[in-house]
Automatic annotation (TrEMBL):
PANTHER family: CARBOHYDRATE DIACID REGULATOR, DNA-BINDING TRANSCRIPTIONAL ACTIVATOR ADER. Belongs to the CdaR family. Residues 347-404 form the PucR C-terminal helix-turn-helix domain. This is Sugar diacid utilization regulator. Pfam families: GGDEF_2, HTH_30. Residues 169-291 form the CdaR GGDEF-like domain. It comes from the Bacteria. InterPro entries: CdaR-like_regulators, CdaR_GGDEF, PucR_C-HTH_dom, PucR_C-HTH_sf.
C-alpha cells in the first residue's frame, strides 16, 4: 500500500485518484462533496448498487436516500465523527453495505469517500490506508471547487454581457466565449422565471436546483435576486427545437413544484434564434412576456408564455390606458355583465372562450365543461342581449380584446361593474 499511497499523494487529478483507490482495494469507489454531490466515481469490476447508480445518473445522491440516512442517524455521525464509519445495508432502497471516510482539508469537511463492501469487508490495513489519503482528497476537492468557481464566474459574466448587449458582433462573442471555455448553442431560446418579492428567493433557489438536475437538454442558468434566466439549446438542424425544449423544461418545473409554488412565478420564453448576437433579443422578448403578465395578473395557463404567441396581449396595457382615459365602455359587454350579475350566469366567460376557440362549439363546450346544448342555449342568450355579428372579424377581435382586459385586470372589471350599476339605476 505504501507505493500506492505515494502515487495518490503525488496525483493532482481526482478522477485518477479515484481509479487508483478502486484498483488498490478492488472495490467500487465514489467521491462526493459535503453536499453529497458527485465528484468522481470508479470503473470498478464490482457492480454499483442502486444508490450509487442513481448518484451517478443524477450527479447527486437522491434526496430520499439522504433523508433515510438522516433518519438512521448516519448523516449526523458523518458530521460529528472524523473516524471511518461502516454502514449496514438498507435493502429496501438498494443500499449495500459500505464504509465512508470523511475528507478534511484545513479543518473543514470537503467531502466523503464511499467504498462499497459487497462481498468482503475492507481490512484494517485498507481502512488505515483510506484515512491516510483522505486529507489529500480533501485538498483536491477544495482545488476543484475553487477552479470551478473561477471558471463558472467567467462564464456567467460573459453570458450576462451577451444578454446585456455588451458585444457588437458575432465574432467578438465567439472569441470571448473561446477564452472563457463557454459552450455556445447552435440555436437557442431564452427562458426567464421571475418572482415578485425577495422573500420568495428560497423558491427561486429551488428552481435553480431543479434546472441543475435537468439533463435532457443543454442549458445555461443565471440567477438574480428575483429571476432565473436560462439559455436553452436546440438541435442545430431542427427549427423550433429550442422552443420545444423550453416548453418541456417549464413542464418539468411545474411537475416538481406544488400548484401554489409554480404559479408564484411569471414565466416568459423568447423566440428561437441561431445568431448569438440575437440572444439579447430573445431575453428582452421573454421579459416583455413577464411584464405583460405582471400588468394583467393572468389566470393560470391562460396567457401565452411564449413571445411568439403573445399576440394581442402585447397591446393590452396601451388599450387599457386609452379606454380608461376616454371612459370607454362596450355596450354589448355591459349588457352581458348586467345579465350575469342578475342571473348568476356565465355569459361573459362563455363568450371569451367561444371567441378564443374561433367559434368552434365542440372545443368551447369541452373547455367550459358543459354540454353542447348548454353552450347553444348560452350563445342564443348572448345573441338576444347584444348586436354582436359573429361573421364580422373586426367586431369579434375588438370584443375579444375587451374581454381580455375585463377578465384579467380587476380594476378594469370594477370600472365596468360600476357602469353596470349605473345602467341598472337608470332603467328603474
Amino acid at each position: 500500500m505504501t507505493i500506492v499511497k505515494e502515487q495518490i499523494l503525488e496525483a493532482t487529478d481526482i478522477h485518477k485518484v479515484t481509479e487508483i483507490i478502486s484498483i488498490a482495494i478492488n472495490k467500487p469507489v465514489i467521491i462526493e462533496n459535503k453536499n453529497f454531490e458527485l465528484i468522481s466515481y470508479s470503473t470498478a469490476s464490482e457492480s454499483f448498487d442502486q444508490t450509487q447508480q442513481k448518484t451517478i445518473l443524477y450527479k447527486k445522491c437522491p434526496v430520499f436516500i439522504i433523508d433515510r440516512l438522516k433518519k438512521e442517524g448516519i448523516v449526523q455521525q458523518l458530521e460529528s465523527n472524523e473516524a471511518p464509519i461502516r454502514i449496514a445495508p438498507i435493502e429496501e432502497i438498494g443500499f449495500y453495505q459500505r464504509i465512508v471516510v470523511k475528507a478534511i482539508y484545513e479543518e473543514r469537511t470537503m467531502g466523503y469517500v464511499w467504498v462499497q463492501e459487497t462481498n468482503t469487508l475492507l481490512s484494517d490495513e485498507e481502512v488505515t490506508f483510506l484515512t491516510e489519503i483522505t486529507p489529500h482528497i480533501g485538498q483536491l476537492i477544495h482545488k476543484s471547487y475553487r477552479k470551478g468557481q473561477e471558471h463558472e464566474g467567467k462564464q456567467e459574466k460573459l453570458l450576462w454581457n451577451v444578454l446585456l448587449h455588451e458585444y457588437e458582433s458575432e465574432n467578438q462573442i465567439r472569441r470571448k466565449a473561446q477564452v472563457a471555455s463557454l459552450p455556445l448553442p447552435d440555436r437557442f431560446s431564452v427562458l426567464v422565471m421571475s418572482i415578485a418579492e425577495p422573500a420568495q428567493e428560497p423558491l427561486l433557489n429551488e428552481v435553480v436546483e431543479l434546472l441543475s438536475r435537468f439533463k435532457r437538454h443543454k442549458l445555461q442558468v443565471l440567477k438574480t435576486d428575483l429571476q432565473v434566466v436560462a439559455v436553452i439549446s436546440g438541435t442545430k438542424d431542427r427549427k423550433g427545437s429550442a422552443i420545444e425544449n423550453s416548453r418541456e423544461l417549464v413542464e418539468y418545473v411545474k411537475s416538481a413544484l406544488t400548484h401554489e409554488e409554480f404559479y408564484s412565478f411569471l414565466i416568459g420564453i423568447g423566440k428561437e434564434y441561431v445568431e448569438l448576437i440575437d440572444m439579447r433579443k430573445s431575453f428582452l422578448e421573454a421579459l416583455e412576456v413577464i411584464e405583460t403578465a405582471d400588468f394583467i395578473g393572468p389566470r393560470p395557463d391562460v396567457m401565452p408564455r411564449e413571445f411568439s404567441k403573445l399576440g394581442v396581449y402585447r397591446y393590452l396595457a396601451a388599450l387599457y390606458e386609452k379606454n380608461n382615459t376616454e371612459h370607454y365602455y362596450n355596450q354589448n359587454l355591459l349588457n352581458l355583465m348586467e345579465k350575469d350579475s342578475v342571473s348568476h350566469s356565465s355569459l361573459l366567460k362563455t363568450l371569451e372562450v367561444y371567441l378564443s376557440n374561433n367559434g368552434k362549439g365542440k372545443h368551447t363546450a369541452a373547455e367550459l365543461f358543459i354540454h353542447p346544448n348548454t353552450l347553444n342555449y348560452r350563445m342564443k342568450q348572448i345573441q338576444d342581449l347584444t348586436d354582436i355579428d359573429f361573421e364580422d372579424f373586426n367586431m369579434k377581435s375588438h370584443i375579444y380584446i375587451e374581454l381580455l382586459l375585463l377578465n384579467n385586470i380587476p380594476s378594469y372589471y370594477n370600472r365596468y361593474l360600476a357602469a353596470v350599476e349605473e345602467q341598472k339605476s337608470a332603467t328603474k
